[in-house]
Amino acid sequence: MSTLIPQIGNWISRHRSSHPLRVGIDGISAAGKSSIADQLAHYLTGQGREVHRSGMDAFYNPKEIRRKNTQDPVKGYVRDSFNYAAVLDSVLAPLGPQGSRRLTPAIYDFRTESEICPQPVIVSDASILLFEGVLLFPPVLTSHFDIKLYIDVSEEVAVKRACERDGSALKQADEIKDDFHKRYLPGQLSYREKCKVFDSVDFIIKNDNYQNPILEKSPF
Known about the structure:
Layout: H1 4-14, E1 21-27, H2 33-46, E2 51-55, H3 63-66, H4 73-80, H5 84-92, E3 102-103, E4 108-109, E5 114-115, E6 121-122, E7 128-132, H6 139-142, E8 147-152, H7 155-166, H8 173-194, H9 197-200, E9 203-206, E10 214-217
Parallel strand pairs: 1-7, 1-8, 2-7, 8-9
Antiparallel strand pairs: 3-6, 4-5, 9-10
Helix pairs in contact: 1-2, 4-8, 7-8
């Protein structure tokens, strides 16, 4: 575990709120968002905190919506990939100041392209939500996160990690690189600039090296 995790975890844990603390973890594809979230969850639960997990991967739109804009795939990727209304209704609003505390952590399985209907989880006011994913802080969602992290990584490292993570007999490295360079990276970087993500987040972590992430912005 990086020494940054206890520093960030302690800062999160000290944050006072009358409702569950909603922590967003953004970053380009293969930046290491899940790794950071895993380490934070492990540390915070070790400190006796109630932690819940969810993420944008569980709130994809169906493929026919995600891929409908063939004329401008970058714009279509940013606009159509995720069901932001469902993220707000199922996760962020219920955990907000006037929320029901009924967390529905997922609505869609993109691997099988099918809707899912898990039972809502009742969470306590003292709990912490770690919610991770790309394109996470557009205007419709950003004000509903209490703490925001951005995991930064060079494009070269992200592509290399994606090839190692997603490569298979059915999906070759060239196909993954093509998707990254023509759709994902241009869309994610355009979103980051348009939404001024670096200005709005509390933490920026440079994560080119999993063993030695660098804290580039923090509130302490």
